[in-house]
Design brief:
By secondary structure, this protein is of the alpha/beta class. The chain contains 7 helices and 15 strands. The strands form 3 sheets. It has a 7-stranded mixed β-sheet, sandwiched between helices. Strands 10, 11, 12, 13, 14 and 15 form a 6-stranded antiparallel β-sheet that branches. The chain has a two-stranded antiparallel sheet with strand order 3-4.
């Protein structure tokens, strides 16, 4: 089947690679090159790099405007496939492919419609994650679902690690749906249940609240790692928390109270401490949490959130 594919981040690459080996991909639509790193070097998106490696033509578009719509429509695609492109598909582009568009979304719809489903699910403490492939419609993530799959994610996985697992499973799920659409066997059904939303995370979402339980603090850490990043304040300065794990067997500490052992800095919560092993102080590079602790004067009196 003749496809167009729209996606931008690394999570979209497995689906593109899978479909490119099974169908004709007329073009790949992705966001324009973006500045990366301290030197702000313009860098292609992971999907752009993957498309180049596959020898596929690329359309770079910050939004799917009239020009992008005309270029895509001229390709006469049978089906559009979108995975985390980062922009909305509106009419007339929505109806341009003869069989419309399908979307791979990393949640069990209608739970967590929106830009950050994996992150919001982890923050909420969801025990089960998953992926859905649905018919794209004008309303956000509201179309009928062709297929849905629960996915086992390693215990304690961060958002990045969970998304990596979901991306691989979602690629296979999407390929199955595309095959069903091609042979006429695919059937979509309306979403069941009350929707919840997953808006994009902002920097403030990464602030850890030490007055909550260990489970809640660690859930937020997982959900905001690596973006926008977990952080706290110490003596009025922001401290990024890069690596951490629950320490349920450690001696209790008051919420925010900090102590150290040989391998970690322990920070108290409303229940048991969180063991922080890697941090990044403001204006400095990443380092061992214990090394950071040793470099602080009066470390015995430190408190997170102060």
């Amino acid at each position: 089947m003749r496809l167009v594919f729209a996606g931008t981040p690394a999570a979209a690459v497995p689906t593109l690679q899978r479909l490119a080996g099974l169908h004709e991909v007329a073009a790949v639509i992705t966001r324009p090159d973006a500045p990366q790193g301290r030197k702000r070097v313009l860098t292609p998106s992971p999907v752009a790099d993957a498309a180049a490696a596959l020898g596929l033509p690329v359309i770079r578009a910050a939004r799917l405007d009239d020009d992008a719509t005309a270029r895509i429509t001229a390709l006469e695609p049978e089906l559009g496939v979108i995975v985390a492109y980062g922009g909305l598909v509106r009419e007339p582009l929505l109806s341009a492919p003869t069989r419309g568009w399908i979307n791979l979304h990393f949640s069990l719809l209608p739970r967590w419609r929106g830009a950050a489903p994996v992150q919001r699910a982890l923050i909420a403490g969801d025990g089960t994650l998953g992926a859905s492939v649905f018919q794209l419609v004008s309303e956000l993530d509201a179309g009928d679902v062709f297929a849905m799959r629960e996915v086992d994610v390693p215990a304690g996985a961060t958002a990045a690690e969970a998304l990596d697992v979901l991306a691989r499973d979602g690629a296979a799920l999407t390929a199955d749906v595309v095959a069903g659409i091609a042979d006429g066997t695919a059937r979509a059904t309306p979403q069941q249940g009350d929707p919840t939303t997953a808006p994009k995370l902002v920097l403030a979402d990464g602030l850890l609240d030490w007055t909550l339980t260990l489970e809640a603090v660690f859930a937020r850490f997982r959900g905001v790692t690596p973006e926008p990043g977990a952080h706290t304040t110490v003596d009025g300065e922001r401290l990024k928390v890069l690596e951490a794990a629950p320490a349920p067997a450690a001696d209790p500490l008051e919420p925010g109270r900090m102590a150290a052992d040989r391998s970690a800095v322990l920070i108290g919560t409303a229940s048991a401490p969180l063991a922080v092993t890697r941090v990044q102080p403001a204006g400095r590079g990443a380092m061992s949490a214990v090394d950071w602790w040793r470099g602080r004067r009066g470390a015995d009196d430190l408190r997170a959130g102060s």
